[in-house]
Amino acid sequence: MIVSIASGKGGTGKTTVALLLAAARPGATVVDCDVEEPNCHLFLQPGRGEERQVTVMRPSLNTELCDGCGRCAEVCLFNALAITGKKVLLFDELCHGCGGCILACPPKAVSEAAKPIGVVRAGAATRNSAGTKLIDGLLDVGSPTASPLIKAMKETLAAQGDIIVDCPPGTACSMVAAVADSDFCLLVTEPTPFGLHDLGLAAGVIKLLGIPAGVVINKSDGGAWDDAVADWCAQEGIPILGRIPHSEAFAHEYAEGRISPEYLADARAIWGKLGREGDCR
Length: 281
What we know:
This protein has 281 residues and is of the alpha/beta class. It has helices spanning 14-23, 40-44, 71-75, 100-104, 147-154, 173-179, 193-209, 224-236, 248-255, 264-278; strands at 2-6, 29-32, 50-61, 81-84, 87-90, 110-124, 133-139, 163-166, 184-189, 213-220, 240-245. The protein has a nine-stranded mixed beta sheet, sandwiched between helices.
């Protein structure tokens, strides 16, 4: 079963829930898709494992063949190419690698070249959930698109066992790439006005993708906004699968890189509900 953990904004507790689920399910694989700021390794501390570079194809211009006709810039929907005089300017950070410029170039002056964007790493946890396999990615500083790296990470997954995908925050392309192909998506939120607003955004994306979803309320305090989140979930037909109580002691342990065993029973209960809700797909 592939379970993705997503939220509409950062800091709501996605990683907390992902690591709790991993601790409650020995043998699971954690995939940290927050490639701009991966942090699962800080808790799991994997030993030295596999590491491989990931590249994407980007345009490469042969200036001897280029006659400056500008056809490449005309077809580029992302404005990654421009013509000044008869000279072609390439803005690599805007390129999506569609290859349209290569097909459109009359003198065949544009070809493709591999460009590194980051690395994918894999290893076994030595702390908190010893034995858990961790796969994470690290995007090169300045690389504009995380999605190709996330897709490369997911290509390494074996088609067996439970997989927990810790998604990037927000609802952008990288989040969609991370949550795609999941059997179920857990949406983590906080009982606050901002949390409820961003939960709605994330739930809208998951609905468009056709992935069954449930909600975990993190830092639950039983107050009015807990009730507001519950009411919204009831209106949208999205089940609440768990509540992680607000706890300063838990926060202190988290800050020290430890996952408190206090809530393992809650995490096991979520797994049980995931089994039932996941059958609905």
